[in-house]
Amino acid sequence: MNTHAIKKVTIIAESVLELKIIEDIKRLGAKGYTLIEVRGEGTKGRHASDWAGNSVKIETLVTDLVAEAILQRMADEYFEYYAIVAFVENVTVVRQEKFS
Amino acid sequence: MESLEVLRSNLLSPIVLAFALGMIATFIKSDLRFPEGLYTGLSMYLLFSIGLKGGVELSDTPLREFWLPALSTIALGLITPAIAYAAARKIGRLDVPNSAALAAHYGSVSAVTFIAATMLMQRLQTPYEGFMPTLVALLEIPAILVALLIASRAMKRRTLGAAMREVLAGRTILLLLGGLVIGLFSGREGVAPVAPLFFDLFRGALTLFLLEMGMITARRLIEVRSVGPFIFGFAILAPVLFGAMGVACGLLSGLSPGGAAVLGAMAASASYIAAPAAVRIALPEANPSLYLTATLGITFPFNLSVGIPLYLWLANQLAGFTV
To answer: Looking at this predicted complex, what is its ipTM?
Structure first.
């Protein structure tokens, strides 16, 4: 089978950021994403979920360049004040063209 | 009724007791947890119900009875955030974002505190104006606007647009105003068929909601020690001052003592649905655990237990002078 190495970007953020982040990653070249609601705790304390619902975890499969652009954007826009983490993993897919 | 008797009746009402139960549940680390979505569902139901009820009442309120209370409500919404901001800056020595965040929350209104106030009036058979929910909608927005405006001027930054979208398209205003308009257009007879769901079950749903609020408050209370004496004092004194202003505004604009007490409770209350969302977007530098601990951990339980009876007492005392 023809397999390809691409990146999986995972972003876990407080839910007020959901729409903004989705807008960001699409604009930066992500072709799709998967979103689930999650609960947790981090350096900014229990995720402030009392009014706006649980935190969200957004995953997207993208090329190396897009992955880097997304991380950069998260770092510039959100890391300082919001409860958010973002990281990249190597994954293997078939149908590379679907993600680039 | 004697003031102490009113206080006792308030403290022993199902909603306040359910709230206390929720707090106990958290303190003893119970595994009690509301199913996913129930809290949001209940808050939607409550907001839509009070909107509907207010709309129905508004549909047979003459405009001349309504415009003066409406104006004084908007005035309250403009003045209270300015006072809160000045107090936080000058006395509390907080920075601009945190002061503005407090101002947005304390100038705005908590729908549940409003409902709790109307419940006490009903239990004491103290009449109040039916159009009060309309005033809730009017009080919600201006304060958030004023606070964010002060902040964006002080910080020379434009963030108002996104925040306003958050407030106006947010579920609080949508459901409250939407319910009002639906109630207004369909009138008392039109709403009658849906009344069993929205009016008859209302108190039961509210009791359940307060159980969850108790758990949320208790989690915030645990953080109280970290916020410092100013926030603690502010979270008690601001509601008393704003409550008194609300009562006075209510009486001067012609509301009954019951209505003035409800307006007092509204002015005294601090928003925790619309304001937090707007503030988080517009003022990310402000520390959420500061303003949420103040509003949910201190001010809300204060108003629910002692504040509302206090505003009613004040309204009854002052009503003697104005007539």
So the answer is: 0.72
User: CB–CB of B280 and A14 under 8 A?
Assistant: yes
Coil/strand/helix, residue B259: helix
User: CATH number, domain at A18?
Assistant: 3.30.70.120
CB contact under 8 A, B289 and A45: yes
- Reported as a single tens digit per residue, the pLDDT across A22-80 is 999 999 999 999 999 988 877 766 555 455 567 899 999 999 999 999 999 999 999 98
CA distance B80 to B184: 29
- B214 in contact with A, Cβ within 8 Å: no
Nearest partner of B260 among B312, B308, B310, judged by Cα:
B312
Number of domains comprising chain A: 1
**Could you tell me the residue ranges of all domains in chain B?**
2-319
Selecting from B40, B220, B292 the residue whose C-beta is nearest the C-beta of A53 gives B40
Q: pTM (2 decimals)? A: 0.87
Give residues with Cβ within 8 angstroms of B166, minimum separation 6.
B277, B278, B281, B282
Query: Is A51's CB within 8 Å of B281's CB?
Result: no
Q: Across the interface, do B276 and A80 touch by the CB < 8 Å criterion? A: no
Contact status of B164 with chain A (Cβ, < 8 Å): no
B268 touches chain A (CB under 8 A): no
Assign domain B2-319 one CATH number from 1.20.1530.20, 3.20.20.140, 3.20.20.70, 1.10.3720.10: 1.20.1530.20
